Amino acid sequence: EGVNVQEYTALKCKVKTWSPVAEKELEGKLPAGASVYMVPATLRPETMYGQSNMFLSPKITYGVFKVTDTDYYFVTDRAARNMAFQGIFPKWGEFSKVASIKGSDVIGTLINAPLSQLGEIYIVPMDTIKEGKGTGVVTSVPSDSPDDFIMHRDLMKKPEFYNIKAEWVPKEILPLIETPSYGKLTAQFLVEKLKINSPKDAKQLAEAKDEAYKEGFYKGVMIYGEFSGKPVQEAKELVREALIKSGDAFAYAE
Ligand code: A2H
What is the CATH number of domain 7-253? Predict the structure, then answer.
């Protein structure tokens, strides 16, 4: 894997209401009163104010892993193994899986999203999630991620196709960051500029993603939240530290 280490912020998003299928599958596998957290890995903690949904891949089988008697993390097996060697579970190098569940069965689950303006968000599908990266759980920020924006748009256009309820996908996109070249909704600007029509337009999406990341990081200024007015370069660390301090996130690297 070379020398490049990605420093992610792993966010703890507590499950509030499971989808009926997930509820049934998890029956008897967790102690009464246990909390399960969906744990998306993000490189843009300063955008967490604008979370609108949580993405899971319908095709990936995820695990529920025990952290303490009352707390459990929902991530891929691969991520759990990595976490075991980063001191995230109680015993170094060990992890304990209490359940396996397919992403498709969890769609429609309602979770808490720390820092988000909405407070609670729904889990919806994203086919392009890679099993070999991060935790396999991706939080959607359609204002600043082109991948998230185009998926969000597709879900709004074709809820029946994706087998979701239209009301699970918020209609409004919250502007978080302003940049000189792309305004207040960087992802939308780039998706339109590069004429991206579908989540499958991988090549253009990779270009949009690079461009959005560079412009956002080097020239972006926060226009929402506690650090409004600060450059993204500063706010990124401040938001990350605040989330870790409040217990809503932890550091995860790979
Ligand atoms: B980012 P890198 Cl606002 N499969 O978080 C596909 N994408 C994944 C993933 C997986 N298994 N795990 C994480 N990601 C996404 C926020 C965000 C992100 C914004 C803008 C850009 C952006 C909200 N989604 O990423 O390949 C996660 O989305 C573009 C760099 O490790 C994570 O950060 O560089 C990012 O990709 C990690 O990508």
Answer: 3.90.740.10
